[in-house]
Design goal:
Elements: E1 8-11, H1 17-28, E2 40-41, E3 44-45, E4 53-54, H2 67-75, E5 80-84, H3 86-89, H4 92-103, E6 110-114, H5 135-138, E7 139-141, E8 147-151, E9 155-158, H6 166-178, H7 182-224, H8 230-249, H9 255-258, H10 265-279, H11 284-300, H12 304-320, H13 326-342, H14 346-361, H15 367-386, H16 390-408, H17 413-428, H18 432-449, H19 456-472, H20 475-493, H21 498-513, H22 517-535, H23 540-555, H24 559-576, H25 582-598, H26 601-618, H27 624-639, H28 643-660, H29 666-681, H30 685-701, H31 707-731, H32 733-738
Parallel strand pairs: 1-4, 1-5, 5-6, 6-9
Antiparallel strand pairs: 2-3, 7-8
Helix pairs in contact: 6-7, 7-8, 7-11, 10-11, 11-12, 11-13, 12-13, 13-14, 13-15, 14-15, 15-16, 15-17, 16-17, 17-18, 17-19, 18-19, 19-20, 20-21, 21-22, 22-23, 23-24, 24-25, 25-26, 25-27, 26-27, 27-28, 27-29, 28-29, 29-30, 29-31, 30-31
Length: 750
């Protein structure tokens, strides 16, 4: 079809109009992560925004025919979303819209949002009234354009209580509209949220405590200064109203007020957010202060849709009110920038942060202004790093760090946090040697801050230190940090938590690289069983752990078990990810290499070519993952004795690795190994000897290089020496005199 006018057509019963309004707003206000924008999927190019979405059915005609307007809208829509409930299941119009869209040949583009009732309840005795799927959704279309008897399995997100929830359900639908994996979107949000959740939660709760304390203090000051300036009176009134509001809000926690009901902090927060809109309408300064605080708390809890309107209104109010301290506006702009970043609205978030920076920078002699400036610079740096702009991120984070050191001295949680994130930005920029000393300083500072008790900040920086050392090849020291982080996470979170599972795998990876396969297996299996219990056996996190188990099995020579498990991993990824995905490409590349080693060159070529094509769609030609696919293909071509092609592939991979990593990195050495094998096959023995000797020297000393590659280079060297002996014997005078003319060229086996 041509480029559609609408991203989606929402079909719904007018009794579910509130759900339609919510979904319409959720879709049109969502901005896909920038790394995905422009990517080509089965749904076309990923746009910057999901607009427009069609939902206006006010002009729906009363005849059975849907009418030109709606038919045209259906034809102009890339997808259809059906809001499923008992209301829609009984709606003639919803059923006709589904039929019309299916008759356009787009049955695979229909998505469902379950909001009430029960799917396929008509199959359950006595529960037909609960059916939420319209008939046209439950059955396939026949060749004659009428519904047949064959059942379908609708693609559905479930917003009912206890199911996906509204936010997760919306994200599932968005993944379907974009043609990307749900976990791709969820993981990007989770990564941002995990890195900052603890910071925001602490800041938000501290803000509420400080707000209450300041309120009480200001009331006391008011009593002492009844006859002072109008400004003092206004501040006192603000403090009094703030205190009254907060005290009244927390009355619900009193058993007599709760009337026996259990009241959660979230319920109190929601109550406060609702009341601040109505009860403080005539006190905009107080309203803005509380909206800013409550919005920050929502952000810390990961409830971004609830946080966003509160923070937006706080900014708008503080912008228009006369007499507002510009630093209050700067503070709200920083909080707004944070939630915008977490919603992947990088452009708007950057704008908010930069305005906050301009306001605070205009008052260089005020301590509070410098605190606001450091906070905004840190937030901007994090946003830029998440957006893939590490050089600019480093500039902003270094500015924040310099200010924090001036403000707080040599040791402070803010300094340690900024230093850690600066180290990650430096590593993201490709300077691993520069990142490691920074991360060491961050570790030392966190240890000084929390010398006796475990703390999430310390556990995180220990893990990040282990990660950088692992990437650098310092396996012994990396293991030490990984183990300390694991022990701390277990103390903080218990023995069953996703962070604990990840920490177990980090230690296992190090043990595997060091050759302790038995020790690695114990930890992998602990993590695998934990993942199965936490997320199930069809989840990408479970698949990733199973992939690591398969690699371990292969290293132990259990190739049959390894092939079985890695094919299971691939099946999970193909089911979960509807489009290209780096993890899928990695599995394809691994199966291709193992097939090469097993001598199954046809299967190896099929998997390696698919993996290379996927990586070229995902990355540019100079990405290390592309180099990995080229290198594996080179090794395959050597085994097929296609030496000219093997040489070109190996040299391309080696060039990419040399720039992206270093000339002496173990991955570069593997590419050089393949290059040497190809040169050996071409009879260029001196060049082959140089390559293979150099690569063997690197691989024999590198703890990070898998054992299979060291074995491979030894095999190539043996083949080279056999060829050299054969060539030398063939060229000696005795051999020449005794040898009869060859009937065919001699080809050495590889």
């Amino acid at each position: 079809m041509d480029a559609p006018k609408y991203r989606a057509f929402i079909s719904y019963s007018h009794r579910d109009a509130r759900w339609a309004s919510w979904l319409h707003a959720a879709l049109e206000t969502y901005r896909p992560p920038k790394p995905l924008v422009g990517k080509i999927t089965e749904r076309g190019e990923v746009p910057k925004r999901l607009t427009p979405i069609f939902r206006d059915r006010e002009e729906l005609p009363s005849a059975v025919d849907l009418g030109g307007l709606v038919n045209a809208a259906l034809a102009d829509s890339a997808c259809q979303i059906v809001i499923c409930s008992p209301n829609s299941a009984k709606s003639r119009w919803v059923n006709e819209e589904i039929l019309a869209f299916k008759r356009l040949g787009r049955e695979d583009r229909i998505l469902s949002l379950i909001v009430a009732g029960e799917p396929n309840a008509t199959d359950m005795p006595g529960r037909a009234e609960e059916e939420c799927f319209p008939p046209a959704l439950r059955f396939k279309l026949g060749a004659d354009g009428a519904l047949g008897d064959a059942r379908t399995e609708p693609i559905a997100a479930d917003a009912r209580p206890g199911k996906d929830g509204k936010h997760r359900a919306a994200l599932k639908l968005i993944a379907g509209l974009l043609g990307v994996g749900f976990d791709t979107l969820k993981r990007r949000e989770q990564q941002r949220r995990n890195r900052r959740l603890f910071v925001f939660s602490c800041t938000a709760m501290a803000g509420m405590v400080v707000t209450s304390s300041l309120a009480v203090f200001a009331v006391v000051q008011r009593d002492r200064a009844q006859r002072q300036t109008v400004r003092a009176e206004a501040e006192a009134r603000t403090a009094q109203e703030t205190t009254r509001f907060l005290v009244d809000l927390f009355k619900i926690s009193d058993p007599s007020e709760a009337r026996g009901n259990t009241v959660t902090a979230r319920e109190m927060l929601d109550k406060g957010a609702g009341r601040v809109q109505t009860e403080l309408a005539k006190e905009p300064a107080i309203q803005a202060r509380l909206m800013d605080t409550l919005g920050t708390v929502y952000t810390g809890l990961g409830l971004y849709p609830q946080a966003r309107p509160l923070l937006d209104q706080a900014v708008a109010t503080r912008r228009r009110l006369p007499g507002v301290d510009p630093l209050d506006l700067s503070d709200s702009l920083g909080h707004q920038g944070t939630v915008l970043e977490l919603q992947a609205e990088y452009e708007a978030g950057e704008k908010a942060y930069r305005e906050a920076i301009r306001i605070a920078a205009a008052r260089p002699n005020e301590r509070q202004a410098q605190i606001e400036l450091a906070t905004a610079l840190y937030g901007l740096g994090m946003l830029l790093d998440h957006e893939g702009r590490p050089a600019e991120a480093q500039t902003s984070l270094r500015g924040a760090l310099k200010l924090q050191e001036t403000l707080y001295g040599n040791v402070d949680p803010s300094i340690a946090r900024t230093m850690k994130d600066l180290a990650r930005a430096v590593a993201d920029g490709g300077n691993l040697n520069g990142a490691i000393p920074l991360m060491r300083k961050a570790v030392a500072m966190e240890r000084a801050l929390y010398p006796r008790e475990p703390h999430p900040d310390l556990a995180e920086v220990l893990n990040d230190m282990g990660l950088l050392l692992d990437e650098h090849g310092d396996l012994d020291e990396s293991e030490k940090f990984y183990r300390e982080s694991l022990a701390m996470y277990q103390r903080l979170l218990g023995d069953k938590h996703p962070f604990v599972a990840t920490a177990l795998e980090n230690v296992a990876l190090i043990l595997q690289d060091k050759g302790d396969l038995a020790g690695a297996e114990v930890l992998y299996m602990q993590s695998l069983h934990m993942r199965a219990e936490l997320v199930g056996e069809n989840h990408p996190e479970y698949a990733l752990t199973l992939f690591n188990v398969a690699l371990l099995q292969y290293d132990r020579g259990e190739t049959q078990e390894a092939f079985a498990d890695i094919r299971r991993v691939l099946a999970i990824y193909r089911k979960v990810y509807s489009a290209d995905e780096p993890e899928t490409a990695r599995v394809l590349n691994t199966i291709g290499f193992w097939s090469t080693m097993a001598g199954d060159t046809d299967e190896a070529d099929r998997y390696l070519q698919e993996g290379l094509a996927m990586r070229r769609r995902l990355f540019d030609e100079h990405h290390p993952d592309v180099a990995s696919s080229l290198m594996m293909l080179a090794i395959l071509r050597v085994s097929e004795q296609k030496y000219p092609e093997a040489l070109k592939l190996a040299q391309d991979a080696k060039s990419i690795y040399t720039v992206a990593l270093s000339p002496d990195h173990w991955r570069t050495a593997i590419a050089e190994t393949a290059e040497g094998a190809a040169l050996s096959g071409l009879g260029r023995y001196a060049e082959a000897e140089t390559d293979l000797a150099h690569s063997y020297g690197i691989l024999s000393k590198s703890g990070g290089a898998p054992l299979v590659y060291r074995t491979l280079v030894q095999r190539y060297m043996e083949t080279l020496h056999r060829r050299e002996r054969h060539a030398g014997a063939a060229s000696s005078p005795t051999a020449l005199a005794a040898r009869a003319p060859p009937k065919s060229p001699v080809v050495a086996t590889q």
